Amino acid sequence: MSVLPFVDEHGVVVDAGVEELWTRLVVKVGRSLSTGGGARYARVVGAVPRESGGVRPLGVGSEFPGFRVVRFVPGRELALEGRHRFSSYSLVFRVEELSDGRCRLRAETRAVFPGAAGRVYRALVIGSGGHAFAMRRMLAGYRHP
User: Which residues, in sequence order, are CB contacts of 101 under 8 Å at separation 6+?
Assistant: First the structure.
């Protein structure tokens, strides 16, 4: 997928070292993307990939409804991409070690929303603040094991 337009970035400081935070990230991303609700939503919007599959444990080639792992740099970066009828998108998690034994976890979203339906979808998901709310809530979950 070519470089997509920037949508937003959110971050959280976590009281954990890189190894501990990376383990949390890999486990929680795999778990959260495997939910029944996510699979139903992926079917409704025509997401690709449609099902979980690919390599396990989590790594390049792992697939979840609506997302495929395209980059996996342990302790540093986890990049997901996907597409559906209204958008092509990427979600990149980056772990940054801080000097005091803590880490910063950042999540960057990039996406394109083609056509009239894409513009409506962007307004509903991004313009409403729903995406930002979901990202902040998700990242807050990484503060604790």
Answer: 15, 17
Does domain 6-140 match CATH 3.30.530.20? Answer: yes
**Which residue pairs from 44-47 have beta carbons closer than 8 angstroms and sit at least 24 positions apart in sequence?**
45/84, 45/85, 45/86, 46/84, 46/85, 47/82, 47/83, 47/84
Other CB atoms within a 10 A radius of the CB of residue 20 amount to 13
Q: What are phi and psi of 54, to 5 degrees?
A: 75, -160
The pLDDT of residue 132 is 96
* Spatial CB neighbours of 60, under 8 Å, sequence gap ≥ 6: 69, 70, 71, 72
Contacts with 44 (C-beta within 8 Å, 6 or more apart), sequence order:
none
Q: What is the pTM of this model?
A: 0.94
Which helix (H) or strand (E) covers residue 82, if one does? strand 77-84
List the single range of 28-37, 42-51, 87-96 with lowest mean pLDDT: 28-37
Backbone CA torsion sign across 116, 117, 118, 124? positive
What one-letter code names the amino acid at 33? L
